[in-house]
Design goal:
Two copies of one chain form a homodimer.
Chain A: E1 2-5, H1 13-19, H2 21-33, H3 51-63, E2 69-73, H4 80-89, E3 95-99, H5 104-113, E4 119-125, H6 131-147, E5 155-159, H7 165-173, E6 176-179, H8 193-202, H9 206-220, H10 228-241, E7 246-251, H11 259-271, E8 273-274, E9 280-281, E10 284-287, H12 298-303, E11 308-315, H13 338-355, E12 359-365, H14 370-391, H15 402-414
Helix pairs in contact in A: 2-14, 3-8, 4-8, 4-11, 9-14, 10-14, 11-14
Chain lengths: 419, 419
């Protein structure tokens, strides 16, 4: 189960739930009222129910026996969820290489290392027009075509179900392909084939992943007292009203080390916006990791500006692994486990941060597995959607990235060199 | 060379250098006056000159012929610099595994994958008392001892030159060891054996790395107009005075993807402090990456609160790699290179951010190599040291992390279970 520990938050959450009841009900009502409307981009709510797509991905994976390396070409929402989940859940059956960039040397080094006969290229772009993705795909496609007569077996396309150049290409060439449903935006697409396909190849439990996400869906419909995403959205909202401009996301789990980057995109790109009154709103998500950042960012969290809400994420169980006797270790550690240390650290950090006047709470996971990560990611999507309603922004568009895209294309078209 | 591009910063830097001349001179003077005093922790200034240690590290690496996997056990300053540099510069001669955590399952999975006969364990802790590091080291030591009669050849210790349990252990057992000079703190230690050792095994050009860092040292002594670290420190300071509480560090380079985490520790742990007047000071460093974060954080940077200073880092040269024709690619890309795209993106992002009212400037590197990364890291250490003087804090201690450490030990000693 996904739990919420607020004993050091310093806010009376039950009382706040009462005071904010009307606003929260309006937020949930407003969100759900748009469900099913074209362009609402609420399709992420349905992804956990779509076991048919899951089976299609699994059948495709089982039909290919040559794959030792999977090149996953995608950027932003087309890679961050896959990276986060595969790092935590993959069993290493294939090596997954993420091409989320256009830097020449690492592209060439990766090509040098791969054997095309053992490689599958997965290209991912909702619109099918993402410049970085199409450029890198052109490179890998060229490489496959030059090496393999049956190159088509080595390419799989995940894109819009009907539109865009990648969909057209997949159809014309008769390539394997999967859809990103029309009403699912990039940063809400981790549980679509965008993430399911690399996870299937690396050996994760996809059924458990979606079952966990369905639990998050179920809780989002419950009354306030049992409604986890409404509760955490309210805490985020209250901290925002206090002028806390930074929300830290800090899992105590090395396996979850790429989850913060996924959360940063979800939160920032959904909520950092001009609201309906023309005001700039949003808080800045800051990625962190425990215990690593106790030796990096916690100094600032303790003594720097009191502008932070800090969310710790802590597993309650992991396999028992005892700490052996070793040089310099205090005697009382004998017989304790690594998990004991991890949990004592999270608990102590929460205490030290609260003592310093920052707000902090902990999300607990029974364990780091597919079920709980599915639940956590879907929970955070609900939290973000609720916050969008509370802050009066559309949590599903990204108008602020258009100018940069346009300027890039104009620059390249004019053929100018840097600077 | 490391260059500074401020044409869209919106600040008159030359004028500001004049206005702030006295304060900057005092900052530099105050810093350099402490050089050589015991406890000043300014030994990082001397590391680039220490070619003797470099040769010792190289001789040690050349004396071992069994190493295919290097387990680097260290946390915070004992791993972030090594990770950043090895990802960018390593040639993959050995696989480096970073153990910067205490999570049971990934620890066990790593042990399962390694062959002790081919593995070298590098344990790194300045004090020799870091709980996470000692615990993980105990585990790997136990594994080596159970597997290999000559386990001592498979362990190397990097710690204080004379003190602490790890130094004592290395001496008692006659293990290979390297010093972290007494006057070098963890987050300033990347160019000591902490980073040099894994870099030597992975095949980086250590001589060039230190030569680049010496260039940064040289510039730090120059008059204001040519003094790159004083200039960037001043920009950071002016943005702070404007109430910009967040400083974004955003390299446009996949190879540099771990450099932001290193910078975050350097900046936050050095500067997020209670100053001499009892005020909480500091800005929060936010890691980012281009072009990836154009699809993640840039929406917030454009439309969210105007509380940011954004530092782009851009390579000016990389190997020429042409973009082939490909599905969906605009025709005008034919004949352009991947570097053209990367540079057009960085330039356009800087323009779009400036247009949105955020402050932004670009650090340019001639290329991503050992010389320029050595220069960049040492430059950022000088910038941080100057900022510490301007903000009235000791940039070389970390008093804010002590409470968490004490609480962790107390909790473990009492033997309590979570929560």
């Amino acid at each position: 189960m996904l739990g919420l520990k607020v004993d050091r938050l310093g806010l009376d959450l039950d009382r706040a739930l009462g005071e904010w009841g009307e606003a929260l009900e309006a937020a949930r009502g407003g969100l759900l009222a748009r469900k099913g409307l074209p362009g609402s981009l609420l399709g992420w709510m349905d992804l956990p129910e779509d076991t048919e797509t899951l089976r299609a991905v699994r059948r495709y994976q089982e039909s290919l026996d040559f794959v030792e390396d999977l090149v996953h070409i995608g950027i932003g929402g087309s890679s961050l969820g896959a990276m986060a989940l595969e790092e935590a859940l993959g069993e290493g059956r294939v090596r997954v290489h993420y091409v989320d960039h256009v830097e020449p040397t690492p592209l060439r080094l990766l090509l040098d290392r791969l054997d095309p006969r053992r490689t599958l290229v997965h290209v991912v772009s909702k619109s099918g027009t993402t410049l970085e993705t199409l450029s890198a795909f052109a490179l890998f496609l060229d490489w496959l075509k030059k090496s393999l007569p049956d190159w088509k077996r080595h390419v799989v396309v995940t894109t819009d179900p009907t539109r865009g150049p990648l969909r057209r290409f997949a159809e014309e060439e008769g390539l394997a392909s999967f859809p990103i449903p029309e009403e699912v935006g990039g940063r809400y697409s981790a549980l679509s084939p965008v993430g399911l396909l690399p996870l299937a190849f690396s050996g994760a439990d996809l059924e458990a992943l979606l079952a966990g996400a369905r639990m998050a869906n179920r809780l989002a419909g419950r009354p306030f007292g049992e409604n986890l995403p409404l509760k955490t959205a309210l805490i985020q909202h209250l901290a925002y009203l206090e002028g806390r401009t930074i929300t830290v996301f800090m899992p105590y789990s090395a396996r979850m080390r790429h989850v913060p980057a996924w959360f940063v995109q979800l939160h920032d790109e959904s909520l950092g916006k001009v609201d309906r009154k023309g005001q700039r709103v949003g808080t800045t998500a800051l990625p962190a990791l425990g215990p690593q950042d106790q030796h990096a960012q916690v100094q600032l969290f303790r003594e720097g500006p009191k502008d932070k809400l800090i969310v710790l994420v802590l597993p309650l169980w992991d396999e028992p692994l005892a700490i052996p006797q070793g040089p310099g270790l205090p005697g009382f550690l004998a017989g304790r486990t690594f998990l004991d240390v991890l949990q004592a650290q999270a608990e102590s950090t929460e205490e030290a941060l609260a003592e310093a006047g920052q707000r902090a709470y902990t999300l607990t996971l029974d364990r780091v597995d597919a079920y709980h990560l599915g639940w956590l990611l879907q929970h955070l999507m609900w939290q973000t959607a609720f916050l969008g309603e509370l802050w009066g922004v559309n949590a599903f568009d990204q108008p602020g990235v258009e100018l940069g895209k346009r300027l890039t294309l104009e620059r390249l078209e004019k053929g100018g060199r840097f600077p």
